[in-house]
């Protein structure tokens, strides 16, 4: 069959990202759910996944990657998610803001801003798109802030400025996180905070906040992607709820020109 040819052309390889990412756990579950015994999930990084994807597109070759939204790859390329009838990758998700216990007492103004912080996938993609164009993350984030003063002031209105208080935000290496964290760091710095952004592995974002080593994270993908990480620290953190609602998604992503529509089609 056609999909069998694809499988051989792809060496039965699904191109993943960093091993600690939640989506890699979903992808392993997916391989069990669909009995894809012959397939391998190749771990790499977001950057390596993107270059494999772009190389395949260049040559109109088949490729299957672990992909997610919001992400600029859907703006720059004609891509589709494969249907996932077993819901191995879950359904549409929210992205939550989490803070450490005691953060509100120590930094009430920052707490209020983070509690108010709420935006859309379209907003995040505006920053991501510029990152992809080679714009520095802080410049891209500042451009978004300048164009969305009304949104930003709805988070900061009535909140007092502070004088250099230090805040540490932990984040993952994905461009999704880089875009949002650069933006919120600039907003908090404009309010007088001294913000430190620390890049860590996905599970360490959660433990850092639970043990008080870090103050906040704004990239908690729930209820599915980070479920295991979240459950382990749930009682030791404060969840400020979604900063983006129902617009985050993940799954297997392929170029539009591929003649398959469902993960089940990889099985043949
Ligand atoms: N992601 C992007 C991350 C969360 C944000 C979907 C690649 C993951 O843990 O899988």
Bound ligands, each once: 1,1-dimethyl-prolinium
* Annotation, overall tally of beta strands: 9
Number of H- or I-type helical stretches? 12
CATH topology of the largest domain: Dipeptide-binding Protein, domain 3
CATH superfamily of the largest domain: Dipeptide-binding Protein, Domain 3
Indicate the overall shape.
Answer: globular
**H/E element order:** HEHEHEHEEHHHHHEHEHEHE
**Through-space gap between termini:** 7 Å
In the predicted model, the low-confidence regions spanning at least 5 consecutive residues are none
Rounded mean pLDDT score: 96
Proportion of β residues? 15-25%
Number of domains: 2
Summing up helix and strand content along with how strands pair, one would put the structural category as: alpha/beta
Instruction: Characterize the main sheet.
Output: 5 strands, antiparallel
